[in-house]
Write a structure and sequence with these properties.
Strand content: 15-25%
Radius of gyration: 27 Å
Largest sheet: 6 strands, mixed
Order of helices and strands: HHHHEHHHHEEHHHEEEH
Number of domains: 2
Number of strands: 6
Number of helices: 12
Distance between the termini: 86 Å
Shape: globular
Structural class: alpha+beta
């Protein structure tokens, strides 16, 4: 009876996947094309990996802290905002240069509330410097210190409310997993093109060589290149793409991960370890750092922004552009 049930299951039509998994499968079809989407057992082989990857993305988003307010006054009030930007003037500059925020302001939902939500991303750095430090009743100079600072601040994934922003982030995280695999395939394709060129060069060398030892060396090299080309060609076949993508989606932490970080700093951004000097106020900065497949790391932080601040920043940027044109 069990054997009959197993036999019937091989030819029965599986139930449709949940809507969110279906959307994920459709996204794969958009990115990888019909040759992959129309492959036999495409849905059956990828439904579980897609569900697993979406669940992982849910956990990533849930690990993020609540949104913090980003505006000029927050630069003085919130130590984390003070650390993220070099000055209060950098906040409107970051808002104005975001293409995602400019596009968002053209949509009706941007005007539903006085605030909107987005994701702030930045690169974390540490710099070794020499500075002054209290040593009891003395002030020592040329003391080795480490400064914490951030660069490449960017605002992205705007939404009318925090729930909408987190939903967009969840989709962006899933897209990031898929894009990492697309990049892997592009690397294989470009590498294959280089191998083809190298193989032709080796063939020319083999034909023109009169040295038996060199001919043998060229022949061995041609065999190696042919083997690598066959392996790359196999990896680019739709059925193998599906298998490799399924492996990635079942272990998404290899391509996308987040880790909580915490630092103690003074007002100037100097990192403090151990006991703090007497009378020196310290702040503990806690945030999440995201690591992508290429090992680049970004601090990511949900933020809430006054719509009026963005409007003012965009207007100021327009005035500056017009002034430059006139000059």
């Amino acid at each position: 009876m069990k054997l009959l049930s197993k036999f019937v299951s091989l030819f029965s039509t599986p139930p449709p996947p949940p809507p969110e998994v279906g959307e994920g499968l459709n996204r794969i079809g958009e990115l990888f094309g019909p040759s992959v989407a129309n492959e036999r057992n495409f849905e059956r082989r990828l439904a579980e990996p897609v569900a697993n990857a979406l669940s992982y993305c849910d956990r990533l988003v849930a690990a993020l802290p609540p949104s913090i307010d980003i505006h000029r006054a927050a630069f003085a009030e919130n130590p984390l905002v003070h650390a993220l930007f070099a000055s209060a003037d950098d906040i409107p500059l970051t808002l104005a240069r975001s293409a995602a925020l400019r596009e968002y302001m053209e949509q009706p939902q941007a005007w539903l509330d006085d605030h909107f939500h987005a994701l702030l991303a930045a690169r974390r750095h540490e710099k070794k410097v020499l500075g002054a430090a209290n040593r009891g009743q003395m002030i020592a100079t040329d003391v080795p210190q480490r400064l914490l600072y951030f660069s490449d601040q960017a605002m992205t994934l705007p939404a009318a409310d925090e729930a909408g922003a987190r939903a967009r982030l969840r989709q962006a995280a899933f897209d990031s997993l898929l894009q990492s695999f697309v990049s892997h395939l592009d690397t294989l394709r470009h590498g294959r093109e280089d191998l083809l060129v190298e193989r032709e060069l080796e063939r020319v060398r083999l034909r023109t060589s009169r040295d038996a030892e060199m001919q043998e060396r060229y022949a061995r090299r041609l065999d190696e290149l042919d083997a690598r080309l066959r392996a790359d060609s196999d990896a680019l076949q739709p059925e193998h793409q599906i298998g490799a993508l399924a492996e990635l989606l079942m272990a998404p932490e290899q391509a996308l991960s987040m880790a909580p970080l915490s630092f103690r700093v003074d007002r100037a951004g100097k990192l403090v370890e151990g006991e703090a000097p007497a009378g020196e106020p310290l702040h503990t900065l806690s945030f999440i750092e995201l690591t992508s497949r290429d090992r680049r790391r970004h601090v990511v932080l949900p933020v809430r922004i006054p719509r009026e601040d963005l409007t003012r920043a965009l207007e100021q940027a327009r005035v500056e552009r017009d002034r430059i044109v006139l000059i």
